[in-house]
Amino acid sequence: MSIVGFSFIFIGISNFISWFWSDKIVLSISGAKPVSLESNRELYRTVENLAIAGGLPLPRIYIIDDTAPNAFATGRDPKHGVICFTTGILSKLTKQELEGVTAHELSHIGNRDTLMMSVVSVLVGTIALMADWFMRSMWFGGGDRNNKSGVMMIFAIVAAILAPIIASLIQMAVSRRREFLADASGVLLTRNPNSLATALQKISGDKEALEAANRGTAHLYIVNPLKGSQVLDGFGKLFSTHPPIADRIKALNEMEGKF
User: Torsion angle of alpha carbons 6, 126, 12, 178, nearest 10°?
Assistant: First the structure.
């Protein structure tokens, strides 16, 4: 079997493992602890009520002991959904704001965003591999290298460089669109776009860094936890997994009065 074949198998296996055990991996990395009805009745009931309103199974609830406000959802499908909150978000948001955040995260679960991003990740890996394979076949293929078309060789090199970048940009664009969709879907549950808008403003405006987050998990959070990434120019937005907070708040404000 060729190296390309082995690469496809490796990508398939690694993505299956990431998808199937993603919740356990992320929770372990983040140091999250489970929440029960007895340990935090108010939070448990908030999630439970919104899950019922959305017609979703009750997700497992976790808390990260970190005073920076943030939250994320994970799990391979609605039956295995997980929502995780930091202690900071529980203490710094009002009840309605927390409901807005919870509805957003439940929408990620209901919209199967974990599955969507897994599929996109496979496609990104495949495009990168195909570009690399094309360049190698042009460079190391049989025959007289002097007879190879110089134009084709240049095209192969450019494709190998640009294809992974373009694929990654597509992946990030999909991630940003799913955030907008989760915002809108969450508002359909709470009927209160202002509560989510003010929650996003508070979370993004908090200066405290989330120590439990890293570049591998940052895309999961409702607001990018890596400080310094919120203010982006037009070019920088292309490489962000989150839409600008101002754009999200603007979209939510436009929904005000429609319920």
Answer: 170
What is each CA distance from 239 to 126, 171, 172, 208, in whole angstroms?
Answer: 20, 10, 7, 23
pLDDT tens readout for residues 63-80: 999 999 999 998 888 999
Kindly give, in sequence order, each residue whose CB lies less than 8 Å from that of residue 69, ignoring residues fewer than 6 positions away: 86, 88, 89, 92, 93, 202, 203, 206
Residues 6 or more apart from 54 whose CB is under 8 A from it?
103, 106, 107, 110, 189
Look at residue 119 and tell me if it is in a domain. Answer: no
**Burial of 38 from C-beta contacts in 10 A (0-12 / 13-18 / 19+):** exposed
- Tell me which residue range forms the domain holding 75: 3-114+171-255
Q: What is the CATH number of the domain that holds 190?
A: 3.30.2010.10
Count of domains for the chain: 1
Residue 105 annotated to the active site? yes
Residues, the chain: 259
**17-36 residues labelled b (16+ CB within 10 A) or e (exposed):** ebbeebbeebbeebebeebe
Q: Are 43 and 161 in contact (CB under 8 A)?
A: no
Decide if 120 is inside a domain.
Answer: no
Q: Which of 105, 179, 254, 256 is catalytic?
A: 105
In a domain? residue 155: no
For residue range 134-183, what is the model confidence (pLDDT) as tens digits? 666 666 555 455 555 566 667 667 766 776 676 667 667 778 889 999 99
In a domain, 22, yes or no: yes
Rounded to a whole number of angstroms, the distance between the first and last alpha carbons of the chain is: 59
Q: Which amino acid is at 119?
A: V
